[in-house]
Design brief:
Length: 132
């Protein structure tokens, strides 16, 4: 079973019940892949929740998704990416670099609605368009 980090954009669409995104998630599982997330994804979702119902739905979602650790190696990798891209005039966010580092740590696969946020050549990015 291969881990695939599910980015916040995709998690939001799952929480909103977007049919194509939910279908993609089921296909991912049917192929034997294992969806995972990291603490950054949890924080980004938690920050946007409104009301008890949304909170309960989000908690159920995260109960069914493994949350992978962000450790020292992930921090070093994220910092190195930010530094290298900044040297070329490209600004990457801390959160996106940490999410990418978490994806790298579990095998280098990431699904997102924002593929341009993850230009790191060391990870494989699959575009799941937002709002579907």
């Amino acid at each position: 079973m291969t881990a695939v980090l599910v980015d916040t954009t995709v998690l939001i669409d799952i929480l909103r019940g977007r049919p194509r995104t939910v279908e993609r998630l089921w296909r991912l599982r049917a192929r034997g892949d294992r969806p995972v997330a990291c603490a950054i994804n949890v924080e980004e979702i938690e920050r946007g929740l409104r009301g008890e119902r949304e909170t309960e739905v989000a908690r159920r979602l995260f109960d069914g998704v493994e949350i992978v650790d962000l450790d020292r190696r992930a921090g070093v990798r994220a910092g190195a990416w930010r530094r290298a891209f900044a040297a070329r005039g490209v600004t990457l966010s801390q959160a996106d670099c940490l999410i990418a580092a978490a994806a790298f740590a579990v095998g280098g696969r990431l699904v997102t609605g924002n593929p341009t946020d993850f230009p790191m050549p060391e990870i494989s990015v699959e575009h799941w368009p937002s709002g579907e």
